[in-house]
Amino acid sequence: MEIRVLKYFLAVAQNQSITKAANSLHLTQPTLSRQLQELEKELNHKLFKRGKQNITLTQEGLLLKNRAEEILEMIEKTELEFKTDTNNISGNVYIGGGESKSIKYIAQIIKQMQLKYPLIKFHIYSGNGEDVVEKLNKGLLDFGILIQPIDLSKYNSITLPSKDTWGLILRKDDKLSEKKFITIDDLIKLPIIASRQLSKKYFTKNNFTEWFKENIEKLNIVSTYNLIYNASVMVEEKIGYAIGLDKLLNNKNLCFRAFYPKLESELDVVWKKNQILSPAGKIFLNTLMKKINN
Asked: If you count DSSP H runs as helices and E runs as strands, how many of each does the chain have, helices first?
């Protein structure tokens, strides 16, 4: 399977037309059709459903599309790492993280590096812990910024000197908004919108699980989310109450009430054990460690 052919395949998947894809690739239609037929023959699977108006992907085609995008992204990342100018330090740093006010700490590191190393570029991916870990394990990210609770046993990690406060996101016109704090007894009675990570299969023993204890099984989770904006829309539409972090709301109709007893989580910058970092990645890590230790 050649990289060139994977690019052809993705062009057809994106355009949903062999003619349009051939034009974008500056190929003749018969040449592109032959390349796709040979790819299907090599994989022993049909990749496309050919309709009157357009072309769609089969289940096998969808799988190859996901894999091809990851492969080409990794190739691009590797090529950029080898193009680093050792005289004028340049390069790319790929960072993934969840939504947290503590990300401001990382932004300060990036700003500091920009002043000293203007040729280094940063690429930020936003997602929950599960999404970030998946990309980190595949080598698509150099660093992950993970909010506890998360299993850190497979990674090197640095804990940031800040904490996030957990609580309930609710409408301002809700009776519960009159309360200063939210207790576990309050939560058990409510329809809950929770992060996908709020599931025992992701948990290791930590302050988060200690706060909920056995009551986590009693929660009425009606929906899950991976980005707080989507959760806030569901709260506004009265689907439920979202469990989330403070300082992330940007909705005038909603408010945040912290849990009592207080529940906080630390933020960890992680990278794979035995990972060989690019020069730009090493500078980011060294800059981060110096800032934390000062």
From this structure: 10, 11
Sign for the pseudo-dihedral over CA of 122, 123, 129, 135: negative
- Pseudo-torsion of CA 222, 226, 230, 231, nearest 10°? 40
CB 204 within 8 A of CB 265: no
Q: Topology of domain 3-81, per CATH?
A: Arc Repressor Mutant, subunit A (1.10.10)
Phi and psi at residue 249, in whole multiples of 5°? -75, 140
For the segment 48-68, what is each residue's pLDDT rounded down to a tens digit?
888 777 888 888 888 888 888
> How far is residue 35's CA from residue 27's CA, in Å, rounded to a whole number?
11
Q: Is the peptide bond between 149 and the residue preceding it cis, with omega within 30 degrees of 0?
A: yes
Side chain identity, residue 134? E
- 143-147 and 119-126 strand pairing: unpaired
Q: Mean pLDDT over residues 187-206, rounded? A: 73
Q: How many angstroms from the chain centroid is the CA of residue 140?
A: 11
> Which residue type does 141 have?
L
Cβ–Cβ < 8 Å for 67, 9: no
The pTM (predicted TM-score) of the whole model is: 0.68
Topology adopted by domain 163-265: D-Maltodextrin-Binding Protein; domain 2 (3.40.190)
Residue extents of the structural domains in the chain: 3-81, 88-161+267-293, 163-265
Encoded amino acid at 132, one letter:
V
Element (H, E) at 42: helix 29-43
Q: Which amino acid is at 233?
A: V
Judged by average pLDDT, the poorest of 128-132, 154-158, 177-181, 246-250 is 128-132
pLDDT in tens, 249-262: 888 999 999 999 99
Contact 257, 180 (CB under 8 A): yes
User: What does the DSSP 8-state code read for residue 122?
Assistant: E
